[in-house]
Amino acid sequence: MKKDVLNATLLWIVLSILGWILVLNWNIFPPALAREARIVDDAFNLLTVLAVPVFTFVVAILIYAAFRFRSPGGVEDGPPIQDTGRILTAWLVVTIALAGGILINPGFVGMSEVRGEGGADVVIGVTGQRWSWTISYPNGVDVTSYTGELVLPVDQRIQFDITSLDPDVIHSFWIPAFRIKKDAVPGRITQMFITPTETGTFADDPNVRVQCAELCGQGHAQMSMKVRVVEQAEFDAYLDEILAEGG
User: Using CA atoms, how far apart are residues 213 and 224, in angstroms rounded to an integer?
Assistant: First the structure.
C-alpha cells in the first residue's frame, strides 16, 4: 500500500510540473487594452496555477488505479480498504485553505483593484435597447451603434453610466479587450470604470468592440459596436467633429 501511495504521489508531482509548465508558458488571452483587463488576466492565471495540482491529483489517481489495480478478467468487487480518515482530513484541510486563500486573493483583493479609486476623468453614458447601443459623450452628442463607433481616450479613467430603455430587457455592456462587463438594467443606472492603457481599433483586433453579453432576443448576436482607443488629442478632435456634425 505504501509503495502504491509513493508511486501515485510521484505521478501526481510529474503531472503537476508538466501542467504548471503548460499554464505558465501558454498565453491563452487576447490582447489586454485596459488596466482592469490585466488584473482579470492575472487572477485567471493564479486560479489556473492553483487548479493544476487539484486536477492532476484526480488524473494521477485514475491513471495509476487503471493500470495498477485493473482486473485480469471478469468483474468483481475489490477487497475493502480500511481508512483511518487521515487522507480525508488532509484533503478537507487543504481544500478549505485553498478556498479561503482564493476568497482573499484574487477575491477581495482583485475586486478592490478592479474597482479602483473613486472619480473619473471622462464620464460616458451607455444606453442599450433591442438591438443597438447609444453612446452619450460629454459634449452632449449621442452616437448609436448603427451610425458610429465608441471612441475612448487612452490613459484616462472612464466612467460608464449604463442603462437600458424602459420598457426593454436587460442587456450587458461588454468590451472583450477590457474583460469586465456590466448589466444594462431598464430604469436603473449601473457604473463601470475602465482605464485603457493601449491604443487599438476593431480593425486591428475584433475584441475591441462593444458586445451585448446578455441573451436579449432575436438580434442579440448583432448587438455590437466598434471601439477605437486613441490619444487624447484625437479624442478631443473626434468630440469636436461629431458636435459639428450634430451627432
Answer: 10
